[in-house]
Amino acid sequence: MEQKNEKDEDYGYQLFPDRHNETSKRSALGTSLFTFKHKCQVMLRIALDTSPYAKLLLEAMKHSGCAAYLDRHFSCEDCDGIVSGGFDATSSQIVLCQNNIHQQAHMNRVVTHELIHAFDHCRAHVDWFNNFKHLACSEIRAANLSGDCSFGNEISRFKFGIKQHHQECVRERALRSILAVRNVSREDAEKAVDSVFNSCFNDHEPFGRIPHNNADAGHAYKEFKNRDRYYSNI
């Protein structure tokens, strides 16, 4: 795979103009109850408090020694393009695109997707910037386990009915995520995804299964908590 000069590779930061740009940050006085930021923060708190996907991931990260805190590890910001969120590995912070997330269900999926990246960052010590396969693996896992490719979401995209549709959805969404944040060709991205797809698609931690809906995620969350109690009693 062709190596990019570091100065030519911004690792997707152009999509998140508020990152490391103090002049673009709004003052507290300019934030009202009706701004995107306030709505984003409210929806974020609801997601963390009520989504079984998010609750399981937060518990798993805490169990792994990487507890996530609302004020430290989540940031609502304006983003460019149609990106909904991102994980900034340099600051261990999840970015939520307040100008592109307008519904609670969407917020829940984005929070879950980015928490999977945060969990991988904690558990697997992912080399996001130098190992392309590491990035591909985490994107596969996030697309597979976050609900991005649920039946309902795919119906809303008018995509359904083909054999192994879930796998194809995961592959395509992983590719889209990689191409959004890396200056590489689709061919190179496909090679990276293909090289790790089977192992990463079958890695279901911390859920222990592919959670296709909230009920599945809720059962996985209960099992995770019971598993923790089981091991503590051995």
UniProtKB/TrEMBL annotation:
InterPro entries referenced in this protein's UniProt entry, alphabetically: Peptidase_M76_ATP23
Keywords: Hydrolase, Metal-binding, Metalloprotease, Protease
One Gene Ontology CC term in the entry: mitochondrion
GO molecular function, one term: metal ion binding
One record GO biological process: mitochondrial proton-transporting ATP synthase complex assembly
EC annotation from Swiss-Prot or TrEMBL: 3.4.24.-
Annotated family: Belongs to the peptidase M76 family.
PANTHER family: MITOCHONDRIAL INNER MEMBRANE PROTEASE (PTHR21711), MITOCHONDRIAL INNER MEMBRANE PROTEASE ATP23 HOMOLOG (PTHR21711:SF0)
Name used for this protein in its record: Mitochondrial inner membrane protease ATP23
Lineage, broadest ranks: Eukaryota, Metazoa, Chordata, Craniata, Vertebrata
